[in-house]
## 1
Amino acid sequence: MPLRRYPHTSMAQFHIAPSILSADFSRLGEEVRNVVAAGADWIHFDVMDNHYVPNLTIGPLVCEAIRPHVDVPIDVHLMVRPVDRIVPDFAKAGANTISFHPEGSDHIDRTLSLIRDHGCKAGLVFNPATSLNYLDHVMDKVDLVLIMSVNPGFGGQSFIPEALNKLREARARIDAYRDRTGREIHLEVDGGVKVDNIAEIAAAGADSFVAGSAIFGKHDYKAVIDAMRAELAKVESGAQA
Ligand code: DX5
Ligand code: ZN
């Protein structure tokens, strides 16, 4: 399949964000240092509360603990309900971007403002069955749109192909917004991203890629990240996948 070329997307603008959900939690500092040394652009930090999603993971204390180990942005993905109480704690713990699910907040506009007021970039996350219409009236407060390509809660699930259509729709909204305002919004994808599907996902419009098991499940993180970048280079040059 010929891959579409995105004139505004260059390799420098593709971000690979390993999810530490699949890392060895007994040596998290070493794991994040290693994955950044291997070429990671962001660290993706999955926060699950056993209410909004049926799993329980890590909180602000762990964010604060890994912060001194890496210089790259920490991309916090909140799968929690309610959201607002915990936002300042993550900002203090060194998060750079804080994203949440519209279903987790009673007042989406307020939560977006709260995140930005604490000096972080604000992201809105869309589950496979959640409509992008939540973006309609808040684009000015959104710095990142995160499309879930699995149902949230667990690493290691398979990519849901319908996410490609949603990415195309989100890309169209983001491009139209950029043409109108000049402001860039990141388009990130999360769930089941691997070396063998990342090019197709990028061609659908994603510029930032969360990958947990694909990276931390392997011994050689650099080999995986290099292979992902090689696939992304095909998209940039408009080559065949
Ligand atoms: C799922 C998480 C993802 C997950 C990705 O709820 O938000 O970030 O860890 O893991 P993989 O890449 O293994 O699907
Ligand atoms: Zn995530």
## 2
Amino acid sequence: MTQHDRLLIVDFGSQVTQLIARRLRELNVYCEIHPYQNVTDAFLAAFAPRAVIFSGGPDSVTRAGSPRPPQSVYALGVPILGICYGQQVMMQDLGGRVEAGEHATAEFGRAYVEQTGKDDDFLFGWFLEGREQVWMSHGDHVAEIAPGFQVLGTSPGAPFAITADPARRFYAVQFHPEVHHTPNGRTLYENFIRLAGFRGDWTMGAYREEAIAKIRTQVGDGKVICGLSGGVDSSVAAVLIHEAIGDQLTCVFVDHGLLRQNEAAEVVAMFRDHYNIPLIHADESDLFLGALDGVSDPEVKRKTIGKLFIDVFQKHAAEVGGAEFLAQGTLYPDVIESVSFSGGPSVTIKSHHNVGGLPEKMGLKLVEPLRELFKDEVRALGHELGLPASFIGRHPFPGPGLAIRCPGEITREKLEILRKADAVYIDQIRRHGLYDEIWQAFVALLPVRTVGVMGDGRTYDYACALRAVTSVDGMTADYYPFSHDFLSETATRIINEVKGINRVTYDITSKPPGTIEWE
Ligand code: XMP
């Protein structure tokens, strides 16, 4: 376990629990989220948190059998912050009273909290303007606060919006300080971790040193193979592991013929030439495109690619000979997802392509040096390791590549058209300085031809759709509000520069109800 000061987030199933962790990590505090069921007396003793946060959650503490932490948490002598459902848990556990929600007392959305009490430790930097905007989302409400607590802030719908027992350093708020709609929320977290005595020792420089030591201990003089996709996560993992064990690492880059313009060359140049990392460049485009010939169903495409990827990776990995370990760029959100309170998604919307089946199939042990990190931390680590900024900031690219941006049947001709259009579009976005504001942008080539007129002639070519979204984690997304000038300039460039496209549309669907990719 890490040597850093640790904060424990007990997850009661809120949709925004991950945001609490992100806010804390931004403040250089190491924290972990654990579902309340796993937080036992023994767990608490072993974890030895310096502070605890109770997340929000969908249940009602007035219901018998509703989620609770072990009562020993209150005897640890460490500060506790309860948020929303977490506040109600604290009040109920410590002798207050919570009432089940009625329509009249439920409160959702923006609210304003007025100061009613004083606590310089917790409220430092708050109420400078007399009141604070916060985000509420609760059905139940606290009817009576627990003995020892006082009210520091109140809103029309939540008389006990901020409560505190400064002697025990227990704090409880009805709103969500972790969301953007509580603009000054970060300050409350800052105050909480300061009063808990955190040193702010969670930095990427420290993480790098520790991760390298850990990899060396785990791997010894064994061999590691790593599947490189050219994405940020696997690249950062590879560079970190290479720094730890040098040529004991071999990377396998499977080129399935569904990459963007120049992508394969860039990845190979960076890893083999720049970093000198042993790299097998497996050009398997004939195999993949052959298997996809005539396939138009999105799920069949995804499954075909996923299965072939595993076969091909396995074939080339065998060339390395005697590898015992497989490196993966698994991130903390993936880890949380697999143990989360509410479980993973209940319906399969898309079969995500990954190499999850590999370790068991190949009898390999996993090396996952990014397991504790969020995406933005991986980028910071990449920076620390000296990866070029242009590479670190690249938009995510899905494993099945252009196959899922070419709805319907895929042909080499269509892929070529798509690559060119995509390159023009991304160039436009970069030229206008918008690349870093956008989570992901790409072109989808539509399986329709439309009639146009260019010069004096008739054209009958493909239509394409531009996609650009903002998002925090890819789970939800909004389309990006380009200016009309940008859109018309881009459409003109694509039609002029890309033979085969004569019509450009802009996709203004958010997620949900759409998804980011087209298939
Ligand atoms: P959707 O289309 O589901 O995409 O809204 C959400 C995010 O996930 C990426 N994506 C994938 N990434 N393998 C991946 O590694 C996949 O099979 C896959 N499918 C979608 C997508 O690009 C977006 O960032």
## 3
Amino acid sequence: MSQPESVTPASIGIHDLALATSHYRLDLGALADHQGIDPAKYSVGIGQDVMSVLAPDEDIVTMAAEATARILERNGMDGIRTLLFATESGIDQSKSAGVYVHQLVGLPETVRVVELKQACYSATAALQFAIGLIARDPSQKVLVVASDVARYDLGSSGESTQGAAAAAMLVQANPGLMAVANPAGVFTQDVMDFWRPNYRSTALVDGKGSIKAYLNAIGGAWTDYLNQGGAPFESFASICYHQPFTKMASKAHRHLAVMAGQNPAPAEVADYLADTMRYNRLIGNSYTASVYVALASLLDTHDGDLTGARVGLASYGSGSVAEFFGGVIQPGYRDLLRVQEHRSIIERRIPLDHTAYEVLHKTTLPEDGREYRTAAETTGPFRFAGMGEHMRRYERTTD
Ligand code: CAA
């Protein structure tokens, strides 16, 4: 058993957190209209209003580079020696998407870059690995970048739970936003609830089974957290859950509350989690980024001062791995928030009609190495320009 909950001696955690998402969006009302079903199935039943949809010249690299560039604009590059890229929407079986980001944002050669994968969980592993590196040398900083596009087949039950976003975090000693506390509770079990074989661009899922697997794994991580000496359930001012759809966070919170001997009414659960859900309701599933989008949503939209508050993070990746850990919100955190920036990237997305969304969904890239240019559509700072000789090409849209 490790030591009871404490912030690591040299407090380490998230100093800055920046989000990016897509150029387009699809309102789930338009999807419900197309399907001829009650839109409340989405707005109430799964708790989603809108999903982000990538333009043809956007991908996990362009979103990640946009979020990372914002972190570097504010903080500079001093001390950064590692970039950990978390994704389950890999663009190459070999090369890390993080290496493209490294080049696009102009990081120096003296930075190690690697990609991590375990479904929606791997950004949390990256955060813990970053803390380990910084504990060894507190002068170092680590960029943890999570970027994903959630894609299911048209007409499948998962279609309404698509989305796309990136979250970039600067992890360092004496962080400005949230110090990550010990211990962490972890859980792994081999289960086929959601997966994407190498030859598919869309995920396969056992929808109902995945909900059970999520609850089972989060419950397991929570039990391990307590066994490791973690803080009591009622001491958390808020908990940010992985949100494939926001209603899933409500199911998970109720599950943990019951394990803790509580029996909250649905309205109490909704009220407790509301601030963590505002962004995800409008972005959709962003896989690895989702739980950190929830953290940004909480910090940006909570009406009141969270200084000193203990916040829980409940991370889940199908297949499956879960982790529960706590963090302490730092004095002065409100000066570091990016409320207007985040509001703007969510609000500026252009709505698609259903036909245009279907066309984009069906667009595929050539696999024969021929020259291919993508249409210039994104207004973001980086674009996926196309391919040739089996190589992806990226460019800045602005100087
Ligand atoms: N008004 C209000 N509510 C309605 C409604 C209406 N008109 N119609 C249906 N509902 C409710 C249902 O009662 C149900 O609520 P409960 O779950 O609380 O019972 C909810 O809306 C969904 O209805 P269905 O179960 O009928 O929906 P579905 O068959 O279309 O499937 C889904 C929903 C399983 C989430 C599906 O969208 C899916 O497979 N999504 C992808 C998988 C996923 O996100 N799994 C989550 C756990 S795995 C994970 O977290 C990793 C990850 O990121 C993928």
## 4
Amino acid sequence: MAISNRSQSGAIYEHIEVKNPVTSEIIGSIPQTSADEIKETIERARDAQIGWGALSPSERVGYIRRWADLVWEQQETLIKINRRETGKTDSGAFLEIIVLDNILQYYIHHAPNFLKTQQRRTIVPFIQKAKVFYKPHGVVGVISPWNYPYLLGLIDLVPALIAGNSALLKPSEVTPFTAEYAIKLMHEAGIPRDVVQVIHGDGRAGATLVEHVDYIAFTGSTATGRKVAETAAKRLIPYSLELGGKDPCIVLEDADLDMTAAGLVRSAFENAGQVCISVERVYADARIYDALMDKLLYYAGKYQMGSDDGMDIHMGSMTNTRELERTEAHIHDAISKGARVVFGGRRRPELGPLFFEPTILADVDHAMDVMRQETFGPILPVMKFHNLEEAIRLANDSEYGLSASIFTRDFKRAEAIARRLDSGDVSVNRPQMVVATPSLPSGGQRNSGVGRRNGKEGLLRFTHTQSFLTDNLFGQQPELRLADPFSLQVAMVLRTIRRYIKFI
Ligand code: TXE
């Protein structure tokens, strides 16, 4: 909730209260940073970038390595802060740390090589030489959501820093303290204060950031992502958007049904379903549909929900009332159109105001919101298909295109299906694994976003290329014509050779 206060000097300032979703207790407040303060912060970042960008990539990854070790040492504190503002489980908060740590280690080892100056071929061999430099954009703004406040706050910020940019993070106003602590550790690791900074506030602060930075990396809803893209387009700055999803999973008749059911329960209900890459709809071959439903009920029955400490609790609270209400609305809409709740489906107020049971729906179809709109809650709707063409058509029947998965023992068949799915990634027998695999670019198409994070692609988006060419003028005379007889002759000879030999 935003509150206005008057300071001793009489100036009015706003701050935003932050709640623990499990207890509804107010755990602190953050300032709504003003537009002027944001501009000043960006100016400081711009000055600081000059020294940071002048370091070699190896020197910059040295700082990231120190920071990664500090985070590892301080993981208990980080987990506590994260759980207090999200309501997630111990294992969920730890997962954020281990997934990002893998990505950090990957960039620590590979980024200096990715950012190395490249030699390229020229059209006049020996006389000309060409290179490509990767240069930072300048100041990168990172806007992050509340569902993974550590992972999604840092996953873009770190490669932006390694590429030589300074960076400003605006975490979600719902979960600001995890990111703030992570940045404090960056400063303790020696990264200069103005090279990486946090600004707080709601969408107004985010919008101001987009108005002034040189690159924006946004993670959040499709509606806000569109606004960010409009501003970026007006300013002609590059950007990447990681938005919502409605990820399909196809279960083929040869799948290992125990592994499939356990995997689906995990990937649909993790973080109470508040994951952009959670499995939001399942298409199961009619021949194994009933058997799969039995297994799903078995594994869902073993799923532990609560707010206790320990790695054996599988699912915690939802974070916001809005997503809880949307989850219920999707269930009501589905029931009114003929679906059946076969597991869960109720709030659990005795555990906390935002706890909602993991829920499995049967007899669903694409007339229902739950199969078309992003739920962002713990629902697993399962639909039968009768032939593979139907399954592929249904999987692609979505405005989103983030991630998809297939359960099967036949990887060749899976690859052929994957090539026909409109999604940024496809994983077989292990949904959600691509984003945790640092070498693989990850991101969506259609309403799921623009650009890719992770991998070489995810690093190089934070650079622009500068091409560099030298000509030693060997054998050349001063000449004003664009095409003198000698150059024409050389061009003809080179063309003949080039038809048979690749040298550009
Ligand atoms: O997103 P918002 P919210 C989806 C999911 C969820 C919905 C809303 O469907 O229910 O988005 O979540 C900042 N200019 N995902 O409310 O509003 C805002 O302060 C610039 C998918 O968190 O988009 C916050 O820091 N910034 C997603 C961030 O944008 C603005 C994860 C996200 O807020 C802004 C989370 C503006 N005009 C939610 N307005 C995923 N892909 O993981 C707000 N912000």
